[in-house]
Amino acid sequence: MPRKIISKSRMRTQIQASVVSVxxxxxxxxxxxxxxxxxxxxxxRAVGSNSGSTRNASTHGTLLDMTAMKSFSRISADTVxxxxxxxxxxxxxxxxxxxLELVGGYEYPERTVGGVISxxxxxxxxxxxxxxxxxxxxxxxxxxxxxxxxxxxKDMPELLxxxxxxxxxxxxVCTVTLxxxxxxxxxxxxxxxxxxxxxxxxxxxxxxxAGVKIFLLPFRNRxxxxxxxxxxxxxxxxxxxxxxxDWACNKAIPDFVHSVGRIVPISKLRDPLIDGFSAAAxxxxxxxxxxxxxxxxxxxxxxxxxxxxxxxxxxxxxxxxARFAQVVYAYREFCxxxxxxxxxxxxxxxxxxxxxxxxxxLLSPSHDQALFALxxxxxxxxxxxxxxxxxxxxxxxxxxxxxxxxxxxxxxxHAHDAYGQRLVRFRExxxxxxxxxxxxxxxxxxxxx
Length: 449
Ligand SMILES: Cc1cc2nc3c(=O)[nH]c(=O)nc-3n(C[C@H](O)[C@H](O)[C@H](O)COP(=O)(O)OP(=O)(O)OC[C@H]3O[C@@H](n4cnc5c(N)ncnc54)[C@H](O)[C@@H]3O)c2cc1C
What we know:
Blueprint: E1 4-6, E2 12-16, E3 19-23, H1 27-35, E4 44-47, E5 62-65, E6 72-76, E7 79-83, H2 88-97, E8 100-102, H3 113-117, E9 137-143, E10 149-152, H4 157-163, E11 172-182, E12 186-193, H5 195-207, E13 211-217, E14 222-230, H6 239-263, H7 267-288, E15 292-293, H8 295-300, E16 313-320, H9 324-342, E17 350-355, E18 371-378, H10 384-397, E19 401-402, H11 412-433, H12 442-447
Parallel strand pairs: 3-5, 4-5
Antiparallel strand pairs: 1-2, 2-3, 6-7, 7-11, 8-11, 9-10, 9-11, 12-14, 12-15, 13-14, 13-17, 16-18, 16-19, 17-18
Helix pairs in contact: 5-9, 6-7, 9-10
């Protein structure tokens, strides 16, 4: 419960336990906050939808809820400037009205532009699209840890690379200028494989000129592959099949799995039921609802919610394409063994995305090569943390790359091994730009500093 509400300015400010929460409405508000450590103690952390799965945004100082900063202006035919607090869905809606879309198929449209460009983003991008939304950023307005407003563009290339996927460690991003483009439909083709077949196809999938998304059901030994091929512009995207897909994958399956998990206490009955339903639903979606889609449709979907009645928890690791066939095998073995020993298993299919090579950010996980991301998901929390700690050991053996805001169970040494010299450079730059550690919280002090 809030202890006290201060009305010293137009900003809504609450002090909760030891945290000051504030919702700035303008760049001037953000400047005032960063300039006043007495009223707004550090660490100062900006958040959008605050949907990360680690403590990356947590603070005992000041939390800036950026969601009131959602201005929108069109700069040119292929660029748009938005407030950092604008949700992807609102932006996608605005763009779609003019036949435009973001470059890349970012899911979970409740996230904010500021949050997504300040971290890695996983999606089934078509080759040639950006690996992460941060790569589409050509300019941003930043309020530095000392409260100075600066424009960061191509004349400051190193700072721009550090702020993209920079987790708010260089200050607060207030506006973002992004590349956009006309809506480009894609055709979805589906395949179903056993794990052993999937392993054989991974090298082809590393090269295919399509976006790659795979649903993994290790206990059924099934993998449902979705390939997204860029269209020629003549294809019409069909809204109804897409909506049914959206509903089935993002509402019906998680809700069913969650309900069965609560109603049926005996795992020998419950788990095959969940697996059978998940496999049948994937087959229905993949075989009967092969559709033409677009990034615009993906981002305006209504059922893809970060917080819904059924809470889905997740954690992701990324792997070099050359090792991913082995990872797929080891992942299945690990799930079966872990279940046998502990009785815990993820009750939702894991999701794989191929992530494009992307050097636009110093901390881009796919900076050195294209990767496959494995997104583990569950509605069952009992045993989840231990599962992730054990999985982190496996991931590290296969050169896994963690994401600071999406990989629960990672250790500082995992980050150092994966990001190496780039992390060293990021740390040097961070110290230059924030010598007083105004934006550095405990989490990043452990993992980066
Ligand atoms: C159910 C579920 C599924 C998910 N699936 C996916 C997925 O498929 N793909 C994927 O990529 N992610 C996924 N995520 C992860 C999550 O959505 C991402 O971490 C996302 O990038 C966060 O967006 P956000 O607005 O919530 O940012 P936040 O979590 O609020 O912020 C992310 C980071 O950026 C910093 N930050 C935020 N705003 C600013 C700003 N204005 N200035 C400076 N720094 C800022 C924060 O301090 C934090 O370090 C999922 C999350 C959930 C809960």
